[in-house]
Amino acid sequence: MAEYTIVGNSIAANSAAARIVSLDPGARVTLISDEPEPYYSRCALMYYAMDHCCERDIYIADKVHYERLHAEVVHDRVVGVDTENHELALESGDKRDYEKLLLAVGASPRRMGIEGEDAEGVYDFTTLEHARKVRADAERCERAAVVGGGLIGSEVAEVFHKLGLHCDYFVKESTFFPAFCSADQSRIILRRFGECHINVHMSRTLDRVQAEDGGRITAATDTEGDRHEMELLVRAIGVTPRTEFLEGSGVDVDRGILVDDTMRTSAPDVWAAGDCAEVRFPGRESSVIQKLWYTAQPMGWIAGAQMAGADDRYEETITYLSAMFMDLDFAGYGEMPAPWNGLQEISLTAANDVDSARIVHDGEKVVGITFLGTALTKEDCEHLVLEEMPVETACDTVRALYEAKMHDRAPKARIARRRRLSRRPPFWPFGRKKTWRV
Amino acid sequence: MPLSRWPKVPILVILLLTTAVYLYVTPATHPYWWAPIIALAVLMLALRQWSAMPFVAMALLVAGFYVSKQFGPWEFLGMSVTFWYAVLYTIAVVGMGVRFLRLYWGRDRYMVIRTFFNMFAQVVIGFALAFWLPWEWGGGAEDSPGNGVFFMYYWPLEENALVIGEYGGYTAVIKTFLIWNVIAALVIMPVLVYFYGKRPYCAWLCGCGCLAETLGDPFRRLTPRSRLSRRVEPVIYPFVAAAVGFTAWVLLAPDSFSEQVFATQKWYGIIVKFFFASFLGVGLYTLMGARIWCRYFCPWAGLFGIVAKFGRYAIRTRGELCIACGMCNTYCEMGIDIRGFALRGEPVKTPTCVGCGMCIEKCPRRVLSFTME
Ligand SMILES: Cc1cc2nc3c(=O)[nH]c(=O)nc-3n(C[C@H](O)[C@H](O)[C@H](O)COP(=O)(O)OP(=O)(O)OC[C@H]3O[C@@H](n4cnc5c(N)ncnc54)[C@H](O)[C@@H]3O)c2cc1C
Ligand code: SF4
Ligand code: SF4
């Protein structure tokens, strides 16, 4: 019977709470979150923003969720941690004692650091509140833009496309998602964006944002000096672990909150898990920050176990990543190094010019593999990577996969209709029109 | 309370119920039989319940057909009201089936094949076989064109299927129907359900299912999926008991042709088949999604749901890939909490799943797949 305090109310926090309660049925858990909503799926924000589901559909917590976790949710922001006195400082001015503390605070969006960035109509896209704003604004806009060539950026571009907006998409790199995609895959993805009338501007970011008198964004200039008109801009240039409130608290912070494989931080009775944690495996020099739903879950699980007294350890598993670029499935397994430290790649493309694979190897053995379109199952890929298959075997496996699908036609892009505000009927009698959309 | 926050659904259901009863007790030959329909429409307009208008229209269409069938059996171009109802039904299935095919063509083979089969089943079994094929051996087609026999409705959804001959004698078509039902409903279906779940019937063959999968597709997201809606699912079992009990009664009663049997049959027809299956079943499409009848009332679904629960059909979930986005729940027309199963890593095995495959199609991470355990 102990008290547990968890900062955060997302996947890492809730999976830790679930583990704590399963190990210590008398536990009392407090979740402190600066978001007023109950536990929801961050990955579903794009579906909410493009109206493929309603708000209640992305909530994972139902009415009895917190009851089951013996948890109380406090809506407040933690602004300081006093590890000596075991005390949290909250934004509302309150102080709060803790017995055992888990920091599952996630990551906050990066800023571009350019002129005019604070104009109205420039949003991030990491919380439900952001998604609500984007969705509401998209209703009355015709031109939107996204900056950032990552997963969130491409999701937002898809949102704008599905909502029927004109979309400019700025990507700093010269090929799309270079850490994960081969040149061929990048070309195929870009072609798909093109088919859906998303104007992708490669090798460009934004330089300056122009706002009208009221403070609302009207246009932006890119690094090549071209001016693009826009009424809505989403900034998705990556996220950084949220650590600023830990300054001077005695919790060691480097890029993220430093933890070992028990998720324990340098301060006593403080753990960290999820996007904000930087894991240093004992006996290894480098550390990893994994900013994925898939990794936040086991991290929270391990942290919960450790807090409740069990001795589970976080093991680095093969990185697994899955995404969708428009309607193309994308999956990656194993190492996908951004700088090519001695690794080489082999690119394979199927006859339909959509299915393609990139096999990363160190000359003999496979270390990572990514797929666009048809993919081997996760288990198969794990075998390829874990058992350190010779490259030839891996290539043959993938070629056989593509051979078998040789006569399948490539899936056609599903192109949404461009919306023009003036064409909308001034008065639509059926209130539920939106919910009927497929 | 502002008008927009009124509990619309119960109010509407009560109003429509009243209207339906009025229509039922007022002969359609009465000069002002249409008055309550107009009154209801005006009331809806006055209340600004615009969103309910499609519901009103659909429910009243069904009610109108049913009432006129009972009281003013009209004919048009020599064909009966049942025939024209089937025409409308077939147009809806084929037309909306084409819409569905356009959406999923080239991206989900299961959906495409299933929809083709839906259209085929409705056109051939639900329409041509019932009305066009020359039934040399008498039966419905002879005495009135359009008194069709539908070979896609099996016992106990068609609660008379096993005793139908008791009403009008054993003509050839009735005999065929009876034998077919004994084979299909009592032998083939249990085996299929054991291995494939309710999928072959509910999502492929059944007429209600064909309509729900095509005409009902745009309304999937209106399906109730609260905890309460899941908890009231067992209301289906009284309907199972009623249908099975009725059949047993007719079969076991020494003189099954009593007045009582006829009266019971008539009221079963009004309450279950007209009110729940057609009037609410189709009427509620635009308010609560397409499968209200299938989920809460259908005796076949209730009975074979039990078989499915203990059978081998399931939807496999690879929980480690799930991002909890909830798209599966949003588009499941039976209101199943698929995400809950996926997050726990359990296969989805419920008596309700009809195997439409939409959760599998909508999942952005390919977490779900049909399996046989
Ligand atoms: C649009 C989008 C799409 C994504 N898609 C995918 C995907 O497809 N696949 C995938 O694997 N990952 C995806 N991710 C990443 C994934 O959502 C994160 O990895 C995951 O949410 C991390 O969970 P977490 O619990 O560590 O932190 P978070 O989910 O970031 O939650 C942090 C919690 O801490 C609270 N908090 C933060 N600071 C404070 C404070 N000072 N005081 C009090 N409370 C605080 C917040 O309110 C929040 O509840 C996506 C992310 C976004 C934004
Ligand atoms: S669980 Fe899936 S297959 Fe079953 S009814 Fe729901 S959406 Fe259809
Ligand atoms: S749609 Fe797929 S990823 Fe999303 S909650 Fe359902 S099973 Fe999980």
Keywords summarizing the entry:
heterodimer; A: 438 residues; alpha/beta; FAD/NAD(P)-binding domain; Enolase-like, domain 1; five-stranded parallel β-sheet; 26 strands; 27% strand; disordered C terminus; B: mainly alpha; Alpha-Beta Plaits; 2 domains; two-stranded antiparallel ribbon; 4 strands; 62% helix; binds flavin-adenine dinucleotide; binds iron/sulfur cluster
Describe the structure.
Helix content of chain A is 23%, strand content 27%. By secondary structure, chain A is α/β, with parallel strands linked by helices. Chain A folds into three domains: 3-108 and 240-307, FAD/NAD(P)-binding domain, CATH 3.50.50; 122-237, FAD/NAD(P)-binding domain; 320-403, Enolase-like, domain 1 (2-Layer Sandwich). In chain A, strand 24 (344-349) and strand 25 form a beta hairpin. In chain A, helix 1 (11-23) runs parallel beside helix 8 (293-307). Chain A starts with a strand and ends in a 34-residue tail after the last helix. Chain B is mainly α and 373 residues long. Chain B folds into two domains: 3-307, no CATH class; 312-372, Alpha-Beta Plaits (2-Layer Sandwich), CATH 3.30.70.20. Helix content of chain B is 62%, strand content 4%. Chain B has 19 helices and four strands. Chain B has helices at 8-25, 35-46, 53-71, 81-104, 109-132, 140-143, 165-168, 172-196, 199-205, 207-214, 227-231, 236-252, 259-283, 285-288, 292-297, 299-309, 327-331, 338-344, 358-362, and strands at 75-76, 79-80, 313-317, 368-372. Chain B has a two-stranded antiparallel ribbon. A two-stranded antiparallel sheet of chain B has the order 3-4. In chain B, a hairpin with a 2-residue loop joins strand 1 (75-76) and strand 2 (79-80). In chain B, helix 5 packs across helix 10. Chain B is globular. At the A-B interface, strand 22 of A face helix 17 of B. The structure holds flavin-adenine dinucleotide and iron/sulfur cluster (2 copies).
